[in-house]
Design goal:
The protein is of the alpha+beta class. Helices cover about 25% and strands about 30% of the residues. The protein is built from 3 helices and 5 strands; from the N terminus they run H-E-E-E-E-E-H-H. Strand 3 (about 75-95) and strand 4 form a beta hairpin. The structure holds cobalt (II) ion.
Length: about 170
C-alpha cells in the first residue's frame, strides 16, 4: 500500500527512531509499503519515519549506472543500521522526498562501512564509496530525526527557509 510521505516542516520528521526488536510479518508489510511508496514517489531511498513510523528501518534502491533503471534486485532493506567506519569526504547534490523539488550540495563521508539486519534479522554488512554511501548517510540522518537541510551552511539554510516559506504560500490550495 502506498503511504503518505511526510514533508518538511512536519514535526514527526524530527523524531528519533527506535530499533526493531521483532522481525515479523508486520515489519515485512512496512518494508513492502515503503518500497511501493518510494517507487511511486520516484525516490531512491526512504526511511520509515518519512511515512510516520519511528523505527530504525530504511530502504535504498540505487538506479543502475548503465541505463539509470531502478531494479528491485538492487533493493537494500536495512534494519537497525549502524555506520562502523567512515573515511574521507565527498560532496553531492542531494534531494529528499520530504523536501520536494529542493536540491543542494551536502558534505558527507566518502566511504563508509555499515552493519545492519535484513528483514529476517540476519546480520549484514556493506562497505561502499559510491552513491550508496551518500544514500545511507542521508537515510540514517532521517532515523536520527535530521533532514539534509540541517547540514547546510547557515547562509544556504536561511535561503532555503525563505524559499520554502514562499513556495508553501504559493502552493496553498482550496
Ligand atoms: Co530524505
Amino acid at each position: 500500500m502506498i503511504r503518505k510521505v511526510l514533508t518538511y516542516p512536519d514535526p514527526v520528521l524530527k523524531k528519533a527512531s527506535k530499533d526493531v526488536e521483532v522481525f515479523d510479518s508486520k515489519l515485512h508489510l512496512l518494508l513492502d509499503d515503503m518500497y511501493e511508496t518510494m517507487i511511486a514517489e520516484n525516490g531512491i531511498g526512504l526511511a520509515a519515519i518519512q511515512i510516520g513510523v519511528d523505527l530504525n528501518v530504511l530502504i535504498i534502491n540505487i538506479p543502475q549506472e548503465e541505463d539509470g533503471v531502478q531494479i528491485k534486485e538492487n533493493l537494500i532493506e536495512a534494519i537497525n543500521p549502524q555506520i562502523i567506519k567512515k573515511e574521507g569526504t565527498t560532496v553531492y547534490k542531494e534531494g529528499c522526498l520530504s523536501i520536494p523539488e529542493y536540491y543542494e550540495e551536502v558534505n558527507r563521508a566518502e566511504k563508509i562501512e555499515i552493519v545492519f539486519k535484513d528483514r529476517f534479522g540476519n546480520d549484514k554488512s556493506i562497505s561502499t564509496d559510491s552513491l550508496l554511501a551518500i544514500a545511507f548517510q542521508h537515510e540514517m540522518d532521517h532515523l536520527k530525526g535530521m533532514l539534509f537541510v540541517e547540514r547546510l551552511p547557515m547562509l544556504k539554510r536561511r535561503k532555503f527557509e525563505k524559499e520554502w516559506k514562499k513556495k508553501s504560500r504559493e502552493n496553498k490550495k482550496f
